[in-house]
Structures are given as structure tokens and as C-alpha cells.
Specification:
- The protein is built from three helices and no strands.
- It has about 100 residues and is mainly alpha-helical.
Length: about 100
């Protein structure tokens, strides 16, 4: 009974073997996720207020209600661009880069 208890307590702090070599890929995936999370929060909000104030109300002399509408469209388009970039980066993250032509 002591032998089985000791064996289970010895391996309690050690991760499974298939996770030992994946630390760099996990860190890379988390950095990618953090980057796109920050981008998803800041880019649409920044583009909304910037386009509303400087483009639609400033340059185009639109009314406030019209500029709200068009600035919201710009923000939604920014969200879609960030999502598409995230999907592209996540899709290509694990694939090896081909340097030359293989016959």
C-alpha cells in the first residue's frame, strides 16, 4: 500500500510526457492570442472615434447622427479584418515553411 501511494505522489508534480516539448508552441500560441485580443479591443474602438471625429464630421461635414452610423460600419469592418487575420495566422501557425521547390 505504501508503494502505490509513494508512486502516485512522486508523479503528481510532473506533467505528462507529451506536454514537455510543447512549451514553446504554447507560449507562441498564447502570444498570438494576446496580440489579437488587444488588437480586437483597441482597433475597432480607435477607428470608430477617429473616423467619426476626423473623417465623417471633420472632412466630410456630416451630421452627428450620420457620422455615428458610418463610424459604426468602419468599426464592424475592422472587427472582421482582425478576425480574418487571426484565423489566417492560427491556420498557418503549425505548418512548416517551405523554402524551396521540392520535386
Amino acid at each position: 500500500m505504501d508503494g502505490s501511494l509513494r508512486a502516485s505522489s512522486d508523479t503528481a508534480g510532473v506533467p505528462p510526457p507529451h506536454f514537455r516539448g510543447n512549451d514553446s508552441s504554447l507560449v507562441s500560441a498564447l502570444k498570438t492570442l494576446l496580440f489579437f485580443t488587444v488588437l480586437m479591443v483597441t482597433l475597432p474602438i480607435g477607428l470608430y472615434f477617429t473616423s467619426k471625429a476626423y473623417i465623417f464630421e471633420g472632412s466630410m461635414k456630416m451630421s452627428s447622427s450620420d457620422s455615428y452610423f458610418y463610424a459604426a460600419i468602419v468599426a464592424v469592418l475592422a472587427v472582421h479584418v482582425v478576425l480574418a487575420l487571426f484565423v489566417y495566422v492560427a491556420w498557418n501557425e503549425g505548418t512548416p515553411q517551405v523554402k524551396g521547390k521540392h520535386d
